[in-house]
Amino acid sequence: MEHINTTLFILVILLSSCINHKELVNFNEAKLPADTPVPVLNALQLRVEPDDLLRINVHSIDPVAAAPFNIERQSTGNTQGIDFNSLELFSGYLVDREGYIDFPLLGRLMVKGMNLEEIKNLIHGKLKVYLKDPVVSARYLNFKITVLGEVSTPGIIRLTNSRVTLLDALGHAGDLTPYADRSDILLVREGEETRVFKHIDLRREDFFNDPYFYLKQNDVVYVKPIKAKTATVSDPGQRLISYGSALLSFVTLIFAFTRD
Description:
The protein is an alpha+beta fold.
């Protein structure tokens, strides 16, 4: 009997650091309404900031007249080995530290604090003097999010969509690993003169209404590991032996009870 108690005690200790089901489930504290539309109250309207890079295109019924208002990529006879994503970065408008861009023929335009729709309207109004029925499109070229920690593919994610959620970023990073701490995801947001650290609990229902649910350009997301990750990092082989020993002890325990 003493041997059985000892075996049971060892089994409990060895398995106490295992990952349970609750730790692997997102929104496990949320009672989400099924098939019921919920108003989105925390949508983030991105505003242009210094060092943003914008792609702005101008079109008209007269392409020749619209050409001087566009920055075109420099053509090259040999395209082999060219990274077109990097090349595109050189065909955008960089917002300077004062918030201006230098636009062909229109000169310096203040765009800091504007959203993309407001920038399109600004340029469209100025182009009506030169073009008939101008069409302006605008998007971010350097919208990036950095995702680190317990995700499948950590790194920098470059996006063209200006409406990005934390779930979008985690999805682009290959989702969370089994060792991700879903109760404490750190989001670092840096402004011109400030830096904000926000801890987000992915399990809670109010996560979807969190003002940081929608991400901004240059946000950093860090997913920290749970304590069960410690053993796999320090000695993966020893952890395998521990699980093997736990299984052997469990079989021995069952055999002892069966024999009695």
